[in-house]
Write a structure and sequence with these properties.
With about 900 residues, the protein is of the alpha+beta class. A hairpin with a 3-residue loop joins β13 and β14. The longest helix has 22 residues. It is built from 23 helices and 37 strands. The strands form eleven sheets. A nine-stranded antiparallel beta sheet has the order 7-8-9-10-19-15-14-13-17. Strands 1, 2, 3, 4, 11, 12, 16 and 18 form an eight-stranded antiparallel beta sheet that branches. It is globular, with a radius of gyration of 28 Å.
């Protein structure tokens, strides 16, 4: 039984065993990257040209230093031993060992994976996983994709794999791979290949087992090995031996052959020097594709081995291959009837687990979307290994890196030493952690695996990640960049979700996070408030090209940009730390002092952004009813940046409400200090705190936006000619399509207009667009914010939604309306079409495609079509949270009963 006295599912029992250390169910998982080439970690160039230094063409031949990649791959949690799919259709110029895509310089809208793969299912312990890869039967059009995209400009669509005609007449394979764990170190593997074409076709299926190369970088490193341990008439068994991992056996059901080589660089091909061994990383490629029998080791030994199956598959038919990777060496019948029964059992357990997670009434399609979102989130785990000191200095057994690197990218982060399992935004386009993405990912993970979610949030606060000054690393392209400080919000939400769903209050987690985040908050105050006036800068803050110019570089002619988003995030940070302090003060009254500190800081920031005391310029424009950036020139003049974009909405996120004014309540010290402020700083407080107790719990409200400001802002936000889209809130108001914001610096004009789809600007490489599309993280925060406002104002506060409709609704109803619009991006409409697929008829109509759901990076501002990265469940998985909330609302609970779910202080 769990803490809520509900019988635990089998999956929950596995998670409990992992949590208390009795069984390491997370030892094996989908921890391989889907792209290791082109990453900062593998870049040893003088000037940081990662995409060019290690391109896709090198990946099959060059050993990676810091990680591995593969298709539908798994590894142990230190990524020592790896397993993944390899395929060849007899036509491709190379084996299909990894996913192909365009680099930032090749794509007309930046980097872009050019494959179709789907995360079908997964559970947090990874006791069951399912993945689908669609593999063409014709020659993969590598050159066509590169050349055609290079010719297209930023105003044209990307040239996609479907556009090449390679899937015409359904001449492709659906390759399903499923994993089921019998035990933490005993994995069943089933590969099903379905020929969707009309004719018999031949596929070379090569499931591949290999060791990450850990021996080529330092002298005297021990080298692991893979050998053939046993042969029978219908089975071969490989033994993989590693000094740290121990021995594993791969049982192979009736293979045609086993091919061995070494996971070592082909120096001859890449650098025109002699190889250390005749057997190198691309040896199996040379054997299969080019018939070079001398490229693989006839001695049946190596650090990389492929199990070769040559399959003849009739049109419309399927074939199944079984393997088993196990710590158990004595399995005489590894593929008996228990094999299929185990898969059936794990699938049944996964069904029970997800029904337990969201038990309320849901349409089948909505439940499928939620489960696929969770699957994508879980498949996007990755073992991330990166020691910056060793990367900067180079390895003893390798040529020294160029001296320029010592002053280049991340040179000030030499203390960062990463070797952990991370939830990634996307393992192809973003195969590295991002600080604010991780917070949203943890928020979704908390529903299904709060222990892992808490671990993810705490990771970056470890001393080998956070700087001595308190800065959190942003992402590997520049650890020094600044992401929005949403970690406190995420920690609180995870804390409350674990209590609400699982009945546990982990105060130790909350306290540890609080202590570390106070350091980070102090760094923000010291570094991003240059003149100490409580108006913050911060650069692009994860919103890339949302402004007329690159905010990372500052105003083109110098000066300082005071940002509503940076200031809004800091106000939100204050209030989340305040709520954390009060939660901790329930058992330790010392934290009341910290709560007082963050309340006072919030009041100062609110005073500044709203210009309450009139001492200096604020960011609120009362006439336009919106928050705008303020540009201070080097000459001391101020210019208002009248950009109607999401940065002006973010100050709404700074909101908290609680019931602390009544005598006799807990937190007497905090109450006393609060009342002192009300009496002695009345002008500062009156517009940012609603002090009239409201509702059954007599709440007060802390917010930048009072009743009047909120009403004015919602007239913009809920106007379909401005921010409100049929699928959420746009990043930039549609009004800028006819009336762009233009500013002149010197003789050069900078412009912000409304772009609902892919970016046409070159800012940030053109691979991201905050100029109009719908982005899930900010929409999600807005939904939560509106519900918080409703907790205070109740049903009496009504607004017109949409503006001009004459329909007056509560803020709770507005939040639900936005939630439904966001969820509907993925659901079939009355015509059976999913908005996420736009005009892609293959996805809309084909029975083998229409239920394969992508979770994109962002979505078209007018029609909801998916854009950017196609498997970016890093934050689009927040749709699972919205569905979770919808399910509970449909179970007839009132908004008040749902309150705890939405992080109101209780």
């Amino acid at each position: 039984m769990n803490a809520n006295n509900i019988e635990m599912t089998e999956e929950e029992k596995r998670l409990e065993a992992a949590r208390d250390g009795t069984a390491p169910w997370r030892l094996w998982g989908p921890y391989l990257s889907e792209r290791q080439w082109g990453t900062v970690r593998e870049d040893y160039s003088p000037y940081g040209t990662a995409w060019d230094y290690f391109p896709h063409d090198h990946a099959r031949s060059r050993a990676y230093r810091w990680g591995e990649d593969g298709i539908a791959g798994i590894s142990d949690d230190k990524q020592l031993l790896c397993f993944a799919l390899t395929l060849w259709n007899g036509c491709d110029p190379i084996l299909k060992e990894r996913l192909f895509g365009l680099t930032a310089n090749e794509g007309n809208h930046g980097e872009d994976v050019k494959e179709y793969y789907f995360y079908v299912d997964n559970v947090p312990s990874h006791a069951y996983m399912k993945y689908l890869y669609k593999y063409p039967q014709g020659a993969y059009p590598y050159n066509d994709l590169v050349e055609t995209n290079r010719k297209r400009n930023r105003y044209e669509f990307e040239y996609e794999l479907l556009d090449t005609g390679i899937f015409n007449n359904d001449r492709y394979y659906d390759v399903f791979i499923e994993y089921a764990k019998v035990a933490p170190d005993d994995l069943l593997i089933q590969i099903t290949v379905a020929n969707r074409g009309p004719e018999t076709a031949t596929l070379h299926l090569l499931p591949t087992l290999w060791f990450r190369n850990t021996w080529s970088w330092k002298f005297g490193s021990e080298k692991p090995s893979i050998t053939i341990d046993k042969k029978t008439d219908h089975m071969q068994v490989l033994k993989a031996s590693h000094s740290n991992l121990g021995d594993y056996w791969l049982y192979c059901d009736d293979p045609d052959a086993i091919l061995f080589t070494e996971n070592e660089t082909n120096k001859q091909r890449l650098f025109h020097v002699s190889n250390d061994s005749p057997y190198v990383k691309d040896g199996i490629n040379e054997y299969i594709v080019h018939g070079r029998h001398d490229a693989v080791n006839p001695g049946n030994r190596g650090t990389k081995a492929a199990v070769h199956y040559q399959l003849q598959i009739g049109g419309g038919e399927s074939k199944v291959i079984n393997l088993r990777l196990s710590k158990n060496s004595g399995l005489s019948h590894p593929f008996d009837t228990d094999f299929d029964d185990s898969f059936a059992q794990r699938i049944k357990e996964a069904d029970s687990f997800y029904q337990r997670i969201t038990p309320g009434p849901l349409p089948d399609d909505m439940r499928k979307v939620q489960r696929n979102a969770f699957a994508g989130l879980l498949w996007n785990k990755q073992c991330y290994h990166f020691n910056v000191h060793d990367w900067l200095e180079g390895d003893p057994a390798q040529p020294p890196p160029p001296q320029e690197r010592k002053e280049g990218r991340n040179c000030h982060w030499s203390f960062l030493d990463a070797y952990d399992i991370f939830s990634m935004p996307d393992k192809w386009e973003f195969p590295w952690f991002a600080a604010w993405d991780l917070s949203f990912q943890a928020t979704s993970l908390a529903i299904i695996d709060p222990e892992f979610a808490k671990n993810q949030l705490f990771l970056l606060t470890h001393s080998w990640y956070i700087s001595a000054q308190g800065q959190l690393p942003a992402y590997e392209w520049s650890f020094s960049d600044v992401n929005p400080p949403v970690q406190a919000w995420a920690a609180l939400r995870v804390y409350h979700l674990e209590h609400e769903i699982y009945g546990r209050k982990d105060r130790a987690f909350l306290e540890r996070m609080f202590q570390k985040l106070v350091m980070n908050f102090t760094w923000w105050v010291n570094k991003k408030d240059v003149d100490g006036r409580n108006i913050f800068e911060g650069g692009f803050l994860g919103l890339d090209n949302i402004g007329a110019f690159d905010r990372t570089l500052g105003p083109p002619t110098g000066g300082m940009l005071m940002q509503p988003d940076a200031t809004g995030w800091m106000g939100m940070y204050c209030l989340m730390l305040l709520e954390m302090a009060l939660a901790l003060a329930e058992e330790n009254k010392v934290y009341e002092d910290m709560a007082t500190t963050f309340f006072e800081h919030f009041v100062s920031i609110a005073d500044a952004i709203n210009n309450v005391t009139g001492l200096r310029e604020g960011l609120w424009d009362n006439e336009k009813g919106f928050y705008y950036g303020l540009l201070q020139t080097p000459q001391g003049k101020f210019w208002t940046m009248y950009q109607d974009n999401f940065i002006g909405i973010i100050p709404l996120f700074a909101i908290a409400s609680h019931e602390l004014l009544q005598p006799g309540k807990i937190f007497p010290n905090y109450r006393e200090r609060f009342l002192w402020f009300v009496k002695n700083r009345s002008k500062m407080v009156e517009t940012i705190a609603a002090l009239d107790p409201q509702g059954s719990k007599e709440r007060i409200l802390l917010s930048f936006a009072d009743f009047t400001k909120l009403s004015k802002m919602l007239k913009k936000i809920l106007d379909e000619d401005q921010f409100l889209s049929p699928y959420g809130i746009r990043a930039v108001s549609k009004i800028h399509s006819q009336h762009p914001f233009i500013i002149k610096f010197g003789d050069k004009l900078f412009k912000l207009d409304y772009e609902p789809a892919e970016s046409t600007t070159t800012l940030f490489g053109g691979n991201s667009n905050w100029r109009g599309p719908i982005w899930f993280p900010l929409n999600f925060l807005l939904v939560e914010t509106l519900k918080r406002f409703h907790y205070y104002y109740g049903d009496e506060f009504k607004v017109e939604c949409p503006v001009g409709s004459g329909k007056m609704v509560t803020l709770w109803e507005v939040a639900n309306e936005l939630s439904c619009r966001l969820i509907n991006i993925f659901l079939k409409d009355k015509n059976g079409r999913r908005p996420v697929y736009g005009g892609l008829e293959k996805f809309q109509n084909d029975p083998h495609w229409r239920d394969c759901i992508f979770f994109h990076e962002y979505y078209h501002g007018d029609n909801g079509a998916g854009l950017g990265a196609s498997n970016q469940t890093g934050w689009s998985a927040l749709v699972a949270n919205l569905i979770h909330s919808y399910s509970r609302h449909e179970s007839k609970k009132s908004p008040q009963e749902l309150e705890q779910e939405f992080l109101g202080y209780v």
